[in-house]
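Entry 12.
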Amino acid sequence: MTTMKRIFHKELKNHWSLLIAAVLMIASAMSQIACNAATIPQEGNSAIGGNLAPTRTDNLIARLISIDLPRRHISKHPLDAEFSKRAFSLYLKALDPMKYYFNQSDIDEFAQNETQLGEQLKSGNLQFAFDVFNRYLKRFDERTAIAEELLKSQQDFTVNESFVVDKEMLTYPKSKEEAFDRCRKKIKFDILVLMAENRDMLSGKNKEDETHSALEKAKEDPIQRLERRYESTKKRIHQTTGDEVLEIYLSSVTGAYDPHSSYMSQKSFDNFRKTIGLNLEGIGALLQGEDGLTLVKSVIPGGPADKDGRLKSGDKIIGVGQGADGEIEEVVDWRLNDVVEKIRGKSGTTVRLEVIPDDGSDKKIIDIVRAKVDLKDSEAQAETFEVGKNADGTPYLVGVIDLPSFYFDMEAAERGDRNPKSTTVDVRAILEKFNEKKVDVVVLRLSKNGGGSLQEAIMLTGLFIESGPVVQLKQIGDERVRAQFDPDSGVTWTGPLVVVTSKFSASASEIFAGAIRDYKRGLVVGDSRTHGKGSVQTVQPLSEPRLFTSLTNPPEYGTLKLTIQQYYLPAGTSPQIKGVPSDVVLPSLTDYMKDISESDLDYPLNYDEVPPSKYPDFGYVSPQIVEVLKKLSAERVVASEDFQRNEKNIKTYTEIKDRKEIPLNEKTFNAERERFNTDKEERKQLEDVINNNSKIKRDYYLDEVMNVAIDYAQLLNEAGVNFPKPSVPSKRSNSLFFF
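Predicted 3D structure (tokens):
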């Protein structure tokens, strides 16, 4: 649950849609206490019932989307039976990804609507969506009640049985006995995991998580922790609103067209706008939900909480009050999003937090004046490092830039600000400093960059080339392909360039890396290929005048994010599915992570190509240069203990991911967990990406990237390449935004 909630906030800056993140967050909550049963549950009646129901506004939103989807999506696919089956599958997966809650009898009943969802959408009929969710709540309550009983009985961990983790092997329970057995095993698995985590914490193996509260929790009985977790999760699930059910369902509907189309409520879209501009107002703290409590994950440097100094990482927020003397409202067992909404507010206003300090001291009230929070960790970061030696004995100076997203402050631009916060402005300033320091080679890291503004990707490319097409776009309803050019003639960095990518590099990152590679302007290093997203989305509010033109000031109905373009690199190839390949591949765990690439997602667009555009060939990369660089790097990798340890982790990781089942015999479980120790490393790397941890740390991997960069610079020098001087760019407007 914790990780998925982080994803909910982080997705605002990644190429995956906000709504899919929300779906995953809720689905994760639902799957946490999936089937925990003490006695065999009784089948519910065949009637679908519940408390949530669609409103007239919801029905209108459905009708608006039914008009826009087939008309504006690049595929122009009709709302036919195929579409309906896709939406049906995605909605069930969003609610019950591990097939723990719904019985096969439920699915058989739902299937009567499987091919009718398109027609229902056209008429604004959302009853199916709410009926299914209400049935889910019913099954959820049944499972939770039984789980609480089962936890009171003694579990036998000497039995040789296993818990299925391969989704392809899972089916919906066909009988009460089958449902009970799966739930019984799920509880045993949860207990074994908690016992192992407690041992690790108390033995000092998890020093990076060793807060006071974490140590105290590790001393607690796992059964009590699970009981509290189940009850807390039940409360939060029952706080789900009709608006959120609508978002989950309509995200499944739009996802039936492609993975990056989604529906956002007005609140979600407002969050999206603020975060992509790295512009929030609040106290400056990253929060996470855990067992019904809101924990302070970290305090953002330079933010109001950091300047105040009283709120610390690990503290628990149990109450929130508004103003200097507003009543404190208890927020225990609240959903994280609701707590965040209470704490966030306009600059200059006061929020009061009731906090249980992590150091074990008595709870206290902390009053903090809200202010604008600059998400510095999400901006471009830069460092310089001395590496190797030049012919004269002095070290090479390598300039490293870490770019976590292609950001742009939409709100500032709409206000008429001539200098809104943007990726290009920040990176240009960094490169100018590199020029002053006489840096020998630049390394630009996009390995944690999930995308962002298309226009920023185009303009950033322009900092490294004089002119030319950066990306080619094919628009909906128009087979003609139009090139988007570098909008200015200036070049800020003319020297050797190395671009670092991974399977997490997507969308705008792939446009930049692909253009640099096609132009032979620089070297691409990292995972074997990037994510593989070759589509462009636009965001447009839904408005009632499309149906009733007499309304001049329509209410807000949320926003539809739709894929309206496919993009192609200058050479005519597309990153779609295939990604952008690296010239030099470095062994990395991220290259082997599953369910990460575009091809792993549901219903991606197909790969295709267009004719190449005309663009200059810098000639800074050749097959001969690449072969030499590969050879030199391979020799260092083989000789590196760190890389060899990494190779071993990769081998173990692939073995873990290929497992179909996990043993529930305690002795066997612990032995396998001790042997399979890479899951922790995987979680750490995923959290670095999710939390946009862009701090540049010199480790063995970055050292090898810089060694490759120095080899590259030396080979270009030996080839007699004379790099031109940087030139001042012409003025240009930030007028186009695609996400």
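Annotation: The radius of gyration is 27 Å. The chain has three domains: 2-268, 279-374, 377-536+565-718.
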